[in-house]
Amino acid sequence: MTSLLSATAQVQARNGQTQLPIHNSEGGGTIPVRFDGKNLSIMNHTEQDLDINPANIDHGITQAPYERGFSPYEFNGGTTLAISGPDYAVVAADTRLSSGYEILSRNVSKLHPLTTKCVLGSAGCKTDVDQLRSVLDIKMKIYSHNHRKPMATPSVAQMLGNTLYMKRFFPYYSFNVLAGIDSEGKGAVYSYDAIGSFERTPFSASGSGQSFLIPLMDNVISHKNRLDEKRELPKEEVVEIVKDAFLTAGERDIYTGDSVEIMVITKDGIQTETFNLKAD
């Protein structure tokens, strides 16, 4: 809107015209006004009184462009969970692929074995996840050809951290957990942020259902704020806990559903099973 003085001058200069011009991003228009020689006032009017020419409204395409945004990332949802044990590690992820309120696929694996004793779980943008897997597979093959042996799980964890850090200025939109067996035969789980900072933890969760899984795991796995004696859980019991956890997350998170893929990693290799979740 223009100021009162300039509006008064415009009305006076136009010999008592009773239309005050408006300039906005949607084109030109006018508002009915009254000028009595000293004071300028806006007349009571409805939307129909406004003289707006529809031909001037171009929604910012040519005449009055406004700011537009572009995001290179697409959040495709998904939840991952990894739990370490004395001689095993369990990693799981749902199989739903989403975009907004649309389910694109009900059977997409978010788990990717890097060795026979190490599995990567990733949620987030599907294209970035695929690209990250491709880069890691290439590095794993180079290491295998050069050293004639597969990379150890702690070394894979460091390699993943380095790979994410190299893309820190344009990060992979991938929320990662890494689970496997270390050189001593113990379960190992690593938690990551977007640019490669990582730590070894008893469990880790990522993705859209992370906020629902972590409090439950704090109670059941880490045994925080409990008075009963903490015991070592067999892998069969941990698998059942994972199923219950994903059922819980699926009730509150629309991006988690359809089924959960569970991989149990031991010194003998990887065992896989699938458990059905809600499909709505």
Key features of this structure:
280 residues; alpha+beta; 5-stranded antiparallel sheet; 5 helices; 16 strands; 32% strand
Question: How would you sum up this structure, described in words?
Answer:
The structure is a single chain. The protein is 27% helix and 32% strand. It has helices spanning 4-13, 126-147, 153-166, 210-220, 235-252, and strands spanning 19-24, 27-35, 40-42, 51-52, 79-84, 89-94, 97-99, 102-105, 111-115, 118-124, 174-181, 187-192, 198-201, 203-207, 259-266, 269-276. The mean pLDDT is 85. The protein contains 5 helices and 16 strands. The protein is an alpha+beta fold. The chain is elongated. The strands form 4 sheets. Strands 14-5-6-15-16 form a 5-stranded antiparallel β-sheet, with helices on one face. The protein has a 5-stranded antiparallel β-sheet with strand order 9-10-11-12-13, covered by helices on one side. Strands 1, 2, 3 and 4 form a 4-stranded antiparallel β-sheet that branches.
Question: What would a concise description of this structure say?
Answer:
This protein has helices at 4-13, 126-147, 153-166, 210-220, 235-252; strands at 19-24, 27-35, 40-42, 51-52, 79-84, 89-94, 97-99, 102-105, 111-115, 118-124, 174-181, 187-192, 198-201, 203-207, 259-266, 269-276. The protein is of the alpha+beta class and 280 residues long. Strands 14-5-6-15-16 form a five-stranded antiparallel β-sheet, covered by helices on one side.
